[in-house]
Structures are given as C-alpha cells and as structure tokens.
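To close the chapter, one final illustration. This time we ask the reader to focus less on the individual chains and more on the assembly as a whole: which components sit near each other, and how the overall shape emerges from the parts.
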Amino acid sequence: MVTFIHDNNPVSLALQGELNALPKTPGICMFIDIVGSTSEKYKNDVGVWGKKLNNTFNFISFLNDFPDHIVKGIGDEIMLFIPEEELKTKTSLNSCFALLEELYATLDNVKNFPVPDLFLSCKVAMHYCTEVYNITFLEGYNDYYGIDIDLTARLTKKAVENRIVISEIFYQKVLADIEALDTPQHAEVLSKISDKYIEDFKGVPHPTELRIIDV
Amino acid sequence: MNITKSNEGQITILAIEGRLDTTNYNELENVFLEVFTAEKFQVILDLSGLEYVSSSGLRVMLMALKKISAAKGTFVLSNMRDSIHEIFEISGFTTIFKIEKDVNAALKHF
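The assembled structure is written out below.
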C-alpha cells in the first residue's frame, strides 16, 4: 500500500526517520514504449494516429491482466510495477518467465503478422527490482521510487523497435522460474536472448549487466 | 486446457476447452506439430469451450495459419464466444482468419 510522504519542515528528522524505516517492495518494473508515434502525429491527423495508438494499446492484452499496476502513462510510454507478492497470486502470468513470454508473443504478433496500417511497434525494458519503495509525494497518487525504477528507465535507452531489454537480474529470475517448472518448457523466446552486455548508464555508479531480445 | 482431436474425412477438427495462455500454449503447438507431421493441412478449430486466449495463444494460431497457408491448406476458426471474438476484433485478426459461427459452417470451406 502506498505511503504518502509529506512534511513542511525541510530539516525534519522525523521525516528522515520515517523514510529510513520504509519497507521495500520487491517486484517487476516494466516500461513499454510505442515506437514511431511522434512521427505518426506529424504525418497524419488525430483520427489516424489516435486510432493506431488505440489499437496498439488494446493489442497489448497483457495490460488487461494488470490494470491496477499501471503506475503511469507518459504519452506513448507506460510504466508498470508488479509487486512480487501480487504476481505470485495470478493464475497464469505469475512469474518473470511468463511475463517475458507474453510480451515476446505480443511483439512477435505485431511484427510478424501485421495487419497493415492498424498498429505501431513497441519496445520494452524489464527489470526485477529489490530497491523500491511504494511511496508518493503527491497525495492521492500511487507511485514507486528507488534506484531500481531508475535503472529500468535507463534500460529503455538500449531498446529499439521490436526489442525487449532485460536486466541480468531479471534473466536470472527467468532461469529460476524455468527450473521450478514441473515439465520442461521449450519457449522460442529463450533462444532469442542475447549474451550478456555490460553498459554504463548516466547516474548509475556501476556497470549494468543486461540482455537483449530482438523479436 | 483440454484439446480434443477428431476427423471429418480429410479434415482435422481440434476442439479447445479452457484457457489458452503462457502456461499451456505449448500443448496446442505440439498438437499442431503432430497434425502437420501427418501432412494434414485442412484444419478447423472449434473454440466453443475456449474461455480466454492470451497473446501467446494467439501466436500459436497465427503460426498455424502461416504453416497451413504455405501448404495451401485451409484453416477455419469456429464457435467463438463473444469475448474471444472481441479479442480477435481488437487485434485486427478477424481480417486474417476465416471465422465461422459453427463447425457445420466451417466445413463448407473445404
């Protein structure tokens, strides 16, 4: 549950204490960005680009499974955060592996089975977060803060059209999910995961390990 | 999810019951593989019992369509519930698939 943080005293020790005592909320953070929508707006009128955006958002059926976990939408980009404890309660989309498979299928359906002029492509970043706090500084809003949210946003810098970028930590969770399955599953997405890349991101004091999945 | 296979002459009818999602799309993939290995490319999907289909499930149907089309076969979906039909409409796939209200109507495509 979100904690509203507010104190008018800029040197408040009480607030600092309250913040330091906050519980962490481990979970999966995702940024889904619709590609090419800005140029679409210059090329076409609102009737055309609006329809494509509508279709594309509808097409990401995944969003219907997590309507309460869409933290924010900024134009054509959506941020989702799914606390691990809540993910486990889901019927089918209940692991990092399942989330990755479903997003891969969505991007693959858009790319490889296109219905002309109806949809726009997507790019995605996914990270398993441990340093996250369910807090807001604006009353009435739900939000998540922490270095792992920032890191997920940084991962989007490596994403391009029809690409999913995952952190190495997320990848390790996927492998653990597969290991825990009763029956071995042969998912195409696994063969598409790249070797490990190491990148330096602005503001992150250590190199970040990531993997890329080009659909 | 349950998949029941039956034949009507050279036509294979696959009836799907339950939810088709990330946990079980492999099962449908394997059934298709079995059918295609037997050189059968005349297929009807009876979706009267299908309660939910995710992107992973949709993808298996699209891949089957691609394979059947390449083999110059025929693939028809039938008996979709309104909620499933809505998913196909939203995705624009009603323009890609042949969709009929029941198996009898689907059989007329062959």
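Chain A has a mean pLDDT of 90. Residues 125 and 156 of chain A are 5 Å apart (CA to CA). With these observations in hand, you are ready for the problems at the end of the chapter.
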